[in-house]
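Researcher: I need the complex structure. Ligand is magnesium ion. Inputs:
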Amino acid sequence: MQEDIAGWVERIRQGDVPAISRAISWIEDGEARGQELLQALLPHTGRAALIGVTGAVGSGKSNLVDCLAALLQTRGKTVGILAVDPSSPFSGGALLGDRIRMRTQANEAGAYIRSMATRGSLGGLSRATLDAARVLDAAGKEYILIETVGVGQAEVEIARLADVTLVLLTPGMGDDVQAMKAGVMEIADVFVLNKSDLPGAERVEQEVQSLLSVAPRVEEEEWQPPIVKTVATENKGVEQLLEAIEKYLDFSKARGRRKLPRVSQD
Ligand SMILES: Nc1nc2c(ncn2[C@@H]2O[C@H](COP(=O)(O)OP(=O)(O)OP(=O)(O)O)[C@@H](O)[C@H]2O)c(=O)[nH]1
Ligand SMILES: [Mg+2]
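Model: Output:
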């Protein structure tokens, strides 16, 4: 088995898609060899930037992830995409393939796309997702985009461990901005006001702005989450968004913050 593992490590490091898929399946299924392989991959991880993308159902996460991945690819970056779907009994690429209209050139251009589904607890899901991200990291993906729905426990967990977390807002959220305040304000490094082509965008922007202005800031040099307006269906605002993402990554790097633990926690 030891030799086997070495073989898998090699294939994954070369970006071999079937090997990556197999490894993630083992992890999802909670198989012992998945964990064994992860341990062997760990020395080859720690380079990727994990970008968490969260927001309400239908807020445009998949479209936005698609735009971001495509932009990163035009800049010569390699990308992996994980979509977390707690409500789905399915796993594998088929579901996401149906839901995401790929601007990204899957595989050939270096984007690996995978939909993660829960087989057990939500805690298990977030754990499996982060482990899958490690596999992609070892496979040389420089950016890993993780789409999660809403602000359930799994999402918050993933957000906490991602290097940067985007929270999508949409016009017409109205009082929802107030309601989501507690959970979301803590995890957002960058707010994305998507569907900014629709009426009501300014109002949501103002509401978030005012919430941010009253939010207690521990230190003067604390990060102030920006609000970036996008229209994911028209590929608008994506460059500005990537700029905000990079700015945050630089900011947290300068402070020695890296949320993804390099060594498995348990
Ligand atoms: N007008 C407008 N519609 C958008 C925009 N972005 C996404 N949509 C539409 O919103 C719907 C949902 O988009 P998705 O990208 O699937 O949203 P999602 O957040 O991934 O959805 P779930 O994964 O089901 O939670 C689709 O019909 C999109 O065409 C936008 O910027 N403007
Ligand atoms: Mg989606």
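Model: Summary of the prediction. The chain has one domain: 47-254.
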